[in-house]
Give the backbone structure.
Amino acid sequence: MNIIVLIKQVPDTTDVKINPKTGNLIREGIPTIMNPYDMHALEEALRIKDKSGGKVTAITMGPPQAIDVMQEALAVGADTGILLTDEAFAGADTLATAYTLGRCIEKIGKYDLIICGLQAIDGDTAQVGPQVAEYLDIAQITYVRKIHISEKKLIAERIIEDGYEIIECNLPALITVIKEINKPRYPKINKVIDACSEAADIIIWNAGDIDAAEDKTGLTGSPTQVKQIFTPEHKRKGEMLTGTPDSIAKQLLDRLRGKKLIRN
Amino acid sequence: MKPEELLRKTISRFVDNELIPAAREIDEKDEFPYDMFRKLGALGAYSIRYPKEYGGANANNTMFCIMCEELARGSMAVAAFTAMQCLMGTNFIFRYGTDEHKKKFFIPAIKGEKVVAFALTEPEAGTDLFGGVRTIAQKVGDGYILNGMKTWITNAPYADCFTVLCQTDKAKGVKGLNFFLVEKGMPGLSISPKFSKLGTHGTDISEIAFENCHIPLENQLGADGRGISNLTAILAEIRTMTAALSLGLARAAFDASVQYAKERVQFGKPIGKFQAIQLKIGTMATEIEASKHLLYHTTKLLDEGKQCMKEASMAKYFISEVACRAADEATRIFGAYAYSMEYPVQRFYRDTRFLLYGGGTSEILQTIIAKEVGL
């Protein structure tokens, strides 16, 4: 089975800062990670491969430094990584991103299943996966918590507000997965070092390599117009207490006593 | 990204998600954590320094020390047995053992299936190691007969084999010292119950004794008379590794202190807003930063194959003392809570003492450094 996993490099923070002049995310100085949902997507692909063989190809679109997440994917067990990077891809909305990823998948040609994380933790749109499926005109199942594959059929448990539904579709198909689907494995140390070597199987493609139409990629190909972007103001600040249950209880009592809300 | 970066990221994720949540229980149970031992085996931790044909990563000293540093940030006990398994416990079997020894002990050890130990210290041979070894290996027709005692042996209660330093010919002095492989269960080998000790709970230490313990000829590890030079060949690596463990523990104490200084409110504001606490945090941060530079400067020299006993001794001496100071300051920042077993600071404080002895005490290292600079 040939499985493709779509991966995004995202900032490693929940405290996203926005440049008020340009309205863009401030990425300088913020460490990056593989989008956590995508780690579950990759794990699911590797589990299928462990069980029934095949090939796992990881794809990411991003600036040249996004090669880091391809190295991580290879370290965990992906066979090949493809980095789509080109100035023409910059500023893409979800539709232009889905087009670019879709063109890359068409170029790869042979695939049975595409697995994506539910959403990226920076944009939180959850749109790219479904848009790639639409572009490729294949079945899609989102919010997947469990899958079963037999012959050319995929059966998936998809969570809904008050439970889950079981959906069956033909392959090839695209699924987006939630974190509950699995626990991502740790890469083995020797694979970590191999993945960072020059011999690692990472391909770098630009717009020309995937025959992407200029008016469909990047900012030019993005129908979404961002009117305003801002950081919501937190007027009341929450505080998370950490530690063992006993120590949390003590800390809480200290605070309540400190504010004279309870007596000693 | 460089392999060093991805390695640190990988180990750090393992430490945050697997080791830190388990560290308190490992400490309180004070039993060898087989589950964690096997998890680290599956990660490939014990084979990190060894060639790819054995399933290893062929990593350099910089990468090995990154792993040690990160593990020590989570649990000194776990970092200690891992370092033993990676370096002292397996080095001599790998370099000087027969194919059979490798098959039986080295390969299972680096997979995390067997535990190995390294026996140098004796009741009369601590800092005066080379002059004090009384464990005798007497050559007989088909092998050696061992008599004597070793103490402070990490992993001894559950080790499957031991690399043991013995005197084969007293008249030859240091040149009579040789290493031997002794298997668990060999007649004449006895292992004491584990010591009751201050820190690194979860990594057991005990004595081992030999009473007419017969071992085959091929269990001599290394050419005759080369025991000490073979040990000296990895001494700088051992000291640098201990420096890495120290840095990890210093960081753990520092991270806990910063978090607590932000959370603990007194006089209407977090205590980190007071200069008394800021002075401590500022000093800790600076000493840790200096430690990083000294440690990874030394690993670079090791990786380039340069002589660096001076730097390795400095790194072990300086950074183990930094860890002691960091843990001490952490106990002051935490106030009475540091005295409570609820918080990990008391564990950091206890575990720092482990760092002061292995690889040379601070005092002996200071004299070595003094000699290195010309005294």
